[in-house]
Each structure stands twice: as C-alpha cells, then as structure tokens.
Specification:
This protein has 379 residues and is α/β, with parallel strands linked by helices. Helix content is 23%, strand content 35%. The protein contains 6 helices and 18 strands.
Length: 379
C-alpha cells in the first residue's frame, strides 16, 4: 500500500531546477530579438514623426523668408512681441553678406529650433562680366505670375486662325500678303459684377483683327477673380508680322462708378520674341516697336474711349511693358517700360534652413539635424 502511494506522488513531481533554468535561458534568448525589433520600431516611428514635423517647421520658415521683398526687410524685423511679423531672431554679418535667422516652432507639443542662413548680394555680374547692383532685378517667377491674385492672358493661335479665315475668303491672295496687311487690337475688358453673392472682376481678353474691311474677334481668355484678391493682369502676346511697328491695346472698365478705385491694378503687357504665325518664322520683336494704349478711339472700328468715365479713379491703374514704348498722350498715368524692378539694394540670393529638436544647451551639431531645406534665386 505504501509502495503504491509513494509511486503515485513520484509521478506528480514537477520540473527540476536545472530544467527550469534551461527553459528560462532559452526563453530569454528567443525574446531578445523580439525586444530589439520592438525597440527599433519604436525609435524609427519616433524619428519619422520628428522628421515629418521638422520638415513642416522648416517649410514654414522657408515660406516666410521667401515672402519678404528684400534683405532690408529682413534687417527691419519687428520686435518678437509684435504681431506684424515672424518671431525671428536675426544676426547680420555685413562683412560676409550673410545673416542667420533663428526661430522656435512648437508642433504637437514638441519644440523645434530652426536655423536659417540667408545670403545676400549687393552686386552680381552681367553677361559681360561687369558688376551691377540691384535688388529684386528679376522677371517674375511662374509661381508669382500664376497665382490666385493674378489674371493671365496668353496668346495662342488667334492670329493663325484669323489669317486662315481671311485667306479662305480671299484665296486669290497668298497668305504672306494677307498677313502683312492685317491689323489688330489687343482688347481687355475688366467688368465689375457679382457671382454667387461675391463681388468679382470679370476679365475678358480678346483680339480684333481687320483685313480688307472685314473684322474678326477671337477670345484669348475669360477669367473671374474676387475684387478683393485681384492685383495683376499679365498679357503675354506676340508680334503679328514683320511690318508692324505699332499696335493698339484697348483697356475698358465696365460697370464701374466714380467711387471705384482701380489704383491697385497692374497691367503687364509682355511682348514675346516669337511670331504669332508660322508663315514667317524669322519674325521677331521689331526694333522701335510701339504699343499704343492711348488713341484707341481712332481704331478701324471706332471703339469706345479707353476710360468711359470723365472722373474718378479710372486713370490710376498702372501699366508696364517689357521695354517697348508707349505712343501718344493719354489720360492713363503711371506708365513704366520696365516689367521688372531695378532698385539698388541688398538682394536675397540663397536660403538654407536647418531644423533641430530644441535642447537646453543651445548647441546644435550637424549630427543632430533632422531636416535641411535650400532655396536660391538666380542672378
């Protein structure tokens, strides 16, 4: 009886100490890679989040710096407590023509320290290697032209279509002869109206062509912009034929009252150095070319006067061209032959933005950098 009882308890004995130690050891060995993987994944996720947030912080500062007009504006950064400008700290080194801009940006509870190196130049060199001084001396970038605040009218195939139709109606005359006898006027109507309860400007660009007593009208583009947003109207057009030395531009303001101000509107007439048609590919911008935006009432179809109102702010819009002359005398004021500005000053040439996690020491090394962004402007 006792023997059976002894045997019963012997069968129920657990693992020996040695077996337990071996099992724990094996489990530890198998767990180490899993813990390492989990730890690395956590670190990678944290690093990725920091990099993504740092990129947002860097782009914010880059956009603010790209938005300023010139280096003088950067030097005149307002007091950090002011709401008139970014919370920057600016250190200028005139000897090296550089400045360092620092700013702290907090995102999702994490504070990032942004350091921007801004290079500026008083002088650049022209094509002959001669020094020239300027500020903002550049043709507007595409992102500046094609913005929500601008209307862009760009000639496409209007002249080619008009020529084809005139030729179809006058097939006894060759296309070159018709082209060299064609006349045209570049027309822009700025109509004040409403759309879905909003005050808008409806800008309509079109050409009027004449040949042999016949007139044809072809649209360039119609566009609508809220009156509070519209600033600039860009007109890109091409020379019509090799005999043209003067062309007319008709600008009309419709449904305006004398109290309506158009002083904020800028019209940029940019003549391209390419032909309107493929009849003569050698056509280029003629020497001495004149854009007549004054005596439009003397046009072949006797259009309405440029400014239908006798008073008010109609005459205060600004007109610019890319070096071409303006003809006659006109009530239009503030005409300028320069599409681009030529002002002596400090010009921002390049921007480099580094982003770090803010630390208490205030020391930031390249190894700690999360993001680097660069931006430059050509000479």
């Amino acid at each position: 009886m006792r023997q059976n009882t002894y045997h019963h308890y012997k069968m129920r004995e657990g693992f020996s100490l040695v077996e337990v130690i071996i099992a724990v050891t094996v489990l530890a060995i198998l767990t180490i890679p899993i813990l390492a993987y989990v730890t690395n994944a956590s670190v990678s996720t944290s690093r990725g989040r920091d990099t993504q947030q740092a990129n947002v912080a860097g782009e914010t500062v880059m956009e603010e710096l790209n938005a300023i007009q010139g280096f003088e504006q950067l030097e005149a950064t307002p007091d950090p407590s002011s709401t008139a400008g970014p919370n920057w700290t600016v250190t200028v080194n005139n000897a090296d023509q550089k400045a360092v801009v620092t700013q702290d940006i907090t995102l999702d509870g994490f504070t990032y320290h942004v350091i921007a190196d801004v290079d500026y130049k008083y002088a650049a060199q022209d094509s002959s290697g001669n020094d020239k001084t300027y500020n903002a001396y550049e043709v507007p970038e595409l992102k500046e032209v094609y913005s929500p605040n601008n209307a862009v009218l760009q000639e496409s195939d209007q002249a080619e279509t008009a020529l084809s139709e005139f030729y179809y109606e006058n097939q006894s005359t060759n296309k070159n002869s018709i082209l060299n006898s064609m006349q045209r006027a570049l027309c822009i109507d700025v109509e004040k109206t409403t759309d879905a309860g909003r005050d808008i400007y409806w800008i309509k660009g079109y050409y009027k062509f004449w040949y042999g007593g016949e007139k044809k009208i072809f649209t360039i583009r119609d566009t609508k912009i809220e009156t509070s947003k519209l600033k600039n109207i860009y007109i890109f057009y091409k020379v019509l034929n090799q005999n043209i030395t003067s062309e007319k531009a008709e600008v009309r303001f419709l449904n305006f009252s004398e109290s309506d101000s158009i002083s904020k509107l800028n019209f940029y007439f940019v003549l391209q150095d390419t032909p309107s048609t493929n009849v003569d590919s050698s056509i280029r911008k003629p020497s001495g070319y004149v854009l007549d935006i004054n005596s439009i009432s003397n046009g072949p179809d006797n259009p309405e006067p440029l400014n239908p109102a006798s008073a008010g702010d109609y005459n205060k819009a600004k007109y610019f061209t890319n070096g071409i002359e303006k003809a006659g005398t006109s009530p239009i004021v503030q005409f300028d032959k320069n599409v681009v500005k030529r002002e002596t000053g400090k010009r921002i040439a390049a921007i480099k933005v580094d982003v770090y996690i803010k630390n208490a020491s205030g020391i930031y090394n390249e190894a700690d950098r999360l993001v680097q962004l660069k931006s430059s402007k050509s000479n």
